[in-house]
Design goal:
two-stranded antiparallel sheet; about 30% helix
């Protein structure tokens, strides 16, 4: 499945503009998802431990959205990699109906005030906003 917000948007758009019935729209969205899966070379890749024993296969989780907390002067991709590699990073997840729907990476705070612009300074946020 495509992440919930994207999937809902695509389904609504297709349903309202192209197809007369919700079933036809759902079939189109499923076809798009199937194409994404077919184009992904990593799905099914077997990973092994240090001894060469298979530990499992790669599975693409289309229905899980991944977020990173970043500021506007930062590179979100770099922040995500840093948070994933740092054992001090805060990782939160949201479960909807027994299924993981969101994973949120929050890198540990590392203030850098060498740039005096306001965008580089820390900003407060509520936990509800994440």
């Amino acid at each position: 499945m495509i992440p919930a917000t994207v999937g809902a948007y695509i389904l609504d758009r297709v349903k309202s503009e192209i197809f007369a019935s919700p079933e036809e729209a759902r079939e189109t969205v499923e076809a798009i998802e199937q194409q994404i899966i077919e184009d992904d070379d990593f799905i099914g890749t077997v990973y092994t431990d240090e001894d060469g024993n298979a530990i499992g296969q790669a599975v693409r989780m289309l229905s899980v959205a991944v977020y990173v907390v970043s500021n506007e002067n930062s590179n979100p991709e770099r922040d995500l990699l840093a948070a994933m590699r740092d054992p001090e990073a805060d990782v939160r997840f949201k479960v909807d109906g027994g299924r993981v729907s969101r994973v949120i990476y929050i890198p540990p705070a590392r203030p850098d005030y060498s740039d005096e612009s306001g965008g580089n300074r820390p900003k407060g946020f509520r936990a509800d906003d994440i």
